[in-house]
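Good morning C.,

I know you're traveling, so I'll keep this short. The sequence:
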Amino acid sequence: MPADRHFVQSRKPNSARSRLRSCTAVRSTDETRSRIMRSVKSKDTGPERRLRSLLWKMGYRFRLHYKGLPGNPDIVMPGRRKAIFVHGCFWHCHSGCAKATVPKTNREYWLPKLRRNRERDRQAIRGLRALGWDVLVVWQCELGNAQAVSSALEGFLGPARHGQATPRESDCVDGRVSRHRSV
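The tokens, ready to paste straight into the viewer:
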């Protein structure tokens, strides 16, 4: 019974143990949030890799993170003068998207930061267009519908020059594709 009494006493809202527990929980969530935010990359993100995979399967070839252009576009096709940005809905404030919520804590930090991201995006797109490039922005939430994204990409890029990557009949052994191409 004494253990139960101790447990009941520690559950009082103003007890030192209760206050310590709540402070630890706040610190733990802050540390967790900080660790998660630090792990977010600016290149080779999941949405970017999905789009690159889709483009490759459609037969398009491209360059990544072209440093010579304003905004370092994620995907560039220099011969076509086409640039594609893959924007995360949260980081680039996709209007009308459920993923683009502003955090409730530390708003004095987040609001200016997200505003600067939007302004930087506008400047990069303006700069690319001034240089004669066509620009497409693909949002993270749009990548859930591969069919719609692929038709938007075809409309933006035109026909693929390389065609779809399909194995030749001579590459197949017993119905499977060989790892080594025959010459």
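Safe travels,
E.
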